[in-house]
User: Fold these one by one.
Assistant:
Number 1:
Amino acid sequence: AQKVTQAQTEISVVEKEDVTLDCVYETRDTTYYLFWYKQPPSGELVFLIRRNSFDEQNEISGRYSWNFQKSTSSFNFTITASQVVDSAVYFCALGDSNYQLIWGAGTKLIIKP
Amino acid sequence: SQTIHQWPATLVQPVGSPLSLECTVEGTSNPNLYWYRQAAGRGLQLLFYSVGIGQISSEVPQNLSASRPQDRQFILSSKKLLLSDSGFYLCAWGPQGYEQYFGPGTRLTVT
């Protein structure tokens, strides 16, 4: 079965701490894509990253980094030196062979000043 | 660049009333279009998706329907709203591939 698990329902850290959001996926496909989206309090989902199954290089974009490991079926997201503006719900998703996204339940991240 | 519009932003409707939510995309052609619903504090539930004009696939049986009368227009409708239809409705578009880009959403409260 295709599935995405975000085991952390809510994480709360103090500003400037580093925080990692976990994402574990299950798929039968050999070619697939993984995504992270951010949903701030305003509600609109913001696309952060897409990673395909053949590219296991880690990605860094400013304070954001992503660690993709096929051996453990994980695609974790780390925010370095967190800021209050990072407070949001973060969703991990898996793109299946029918071009549909299978969504995790989301992790609510609270950054306290 | 591509832009996706949704309206209205908020809506309060009585039980049994009809519903029409509209979504339009600019700056692209032949996009995949999606309607999602998100209950308060919950994840995303795919309701409908469309790969072309008049082509609608339903993911969840319910009293909602969708239509795509034009290439870049996607409409979500109901003839009679239920209390359980309350939620945050998100429209998304995607190129013929995987990633999806979301509109600002409509918060629907059925009273």
Number 2:
Amino acid sequence: DQQVKQNSPSLSVQEGRISILNCDYTNSMFDYFLWYKKYPAEGPTFLISISSIKDKNEDGRFTVFLNKSAKHLSLHIVPSQPGDSAVYFCAAVRTTSGTYKYIFGTGTRLKVLA
Amino acid sequence: DAGVIQSPRHEVTEMGQEVTLRCKPISGHDYLFWYRQTMMRGLELLIYFNNNVPIDDSGMPEDRFSAKMPNASFSTLKIQPSEPRDSAVYFCASSFAGFQETQYFGPGTRLLVL
């Protein structure tokens, strides 16, 4: 049962345009959502996060939107740059009895074309 | 700080052998996480520690997997006996405190079980 899904395995975008990466989840009890970026042969690096009580969080070129009614999360990158080419993972966190459950999506490979 | 350090970076072993993966978290971080990444399932949280104590190991796939954290600067993930389906990239990550804190990932150990 994949509670966090990234249905697009890959995405290609022209440099300077907007990249939109999507993530769907099934459990309304998640407290927090995060996006990570991963380059080949490296560990994931944190990009941006959003609490379940908010619907938008912005950090420079990166904006995360949360639509709780649709159980949908998206990451917008504007403008896209070739250095943004990487695999992007969304993750959801749920607290249960003092423990944390982290669940990651399977990732979307973004390619920004120069 | 050197970041999260993992060793070895690559491991090739034969089915049935014991495998030990090592991790040194960032100094001062209270939480340590072990993840496994596969093409099919993406990133999966296996276990995490808080102040050297295992908090949630519900992600550990089988009894063949075990993890320890004897002190604040060292953790191991052991697979005994190893099987071909254990082939994956194993990441260690650490964070300062709480699930809202950014997790810093190590470069990963690529394990191949023949």
